[in-house]
Design a protein that fits this description.
The chain is an alpha/beta fold and 222 residues long. The chain has one domain: Alpha/Beta hydrolase fold, catalytic domain (Rossmann fold, 3-Layer(aba) Sandwich), CATH 3.40.50. It contains six helices and eight strands. The chain has an eight-stranded mixed sheet, with helices on both faces. β1 and β2 form a beta hairpin. The protein starts with 7 loop residues before the first strand and ends with a helix. 48% of the residues are buried.
């Protein structure tokens, strides 16, 4: 797809969520038609090369992006040792909701349709956030996600949800199918042939970006 960018505005943001101050990178193309909030997965950060590659393709399609760290640097250091905060879906979702509320209050993003993009455990946080802010959330995309960890919140999600899984990621395919059956919103499950959990194979991440771009663009316009 050809670029529709007229110019890009990029800035670092710090957003309060309870007692925590969260760091993020906000990119706004000129005339943006919507904004996508990214929730990274287990052991990753807003500097994830995978999420940044997807975000770049969304920006080229005229969508704003906000890549957030849902844990503070101190919390990330603890999580590197204990690996428990990355699975604290309630904490991560509460912080996504705080970021959603912040976006709604900003003059340059408040009027834009909002989508959520979650990877791995971040997908569960995105779905719980979507259930908690149904009027604010227009669409959700999960990449190699664990939507099953959203548990009972799945039944309260109203935003159209796209689940993307690698064809070789068989266990996660099964978990996504189970989650899809619990979702009552518009839902689609797309499998990228031959891709493993991190979509490291040639062309796999570009396939994810294309699916996400089309899903967000279609539902932002509706």
């Amino acid at each position: 797809m050809g670029s529709v960018i007229t110019h890009l505005s990029e800035r670092a943001v710090r957003i309060g969520a309870g007692s925590a101050a969260l760091e993020g990178d906000l990119t706004l193309p000129g005339g943006a038609s919507g904004i996508v909030l990214f929730a990274h997965g287990s052991g990753s950060s807003r500097f994830s090369s995978r999420n940044r590659r997807v975000a770049q393709q969304l920006q080229e399609a005229g969508l704003a992006t906000l890549l957030m760290d849902l844990l503070t640097p101190d919390e990330e250091a603890v999580d590197e040792r204990t690996r428990h905060l990355r699975f604290d879906i309630g904490l991560l979702a509460a912080r996504m909701i705080a970021v959603t509320d912040w976006l709604q209050q900003q003059p340059d993003t408040g009027a834009l349709p909002l989508g959520l993009f979650g990877a791995s455990t971040g997908a569960a946080a995105a779905l719980v956030s979507a259930a908690g802010r149904p009027e604010a959330t227009r669409a959700v995309v999960s990449r190699g996600g664990r939507p099953d960890l959203a548990a009972d919140a799945l039944e309260d999600v109203r935003a159209p949800t796209l689940l993307i899984v690698g064809g070789a990621d068989t266990e996660v395919i099964a978990l996504n199918r189970q989650a899809r059956d619990r979702l009552s919103c518009e839902t689609d499950l797309r499998i990228v042939p031959g891709a493993t959990h991190l979509f490291e194979e040639p062309g796999a991440l570009d396939a994810v970006a294309g699916l996400a771009r089309d899903w967000f663009t279609r539902h932002f316009q509706s």
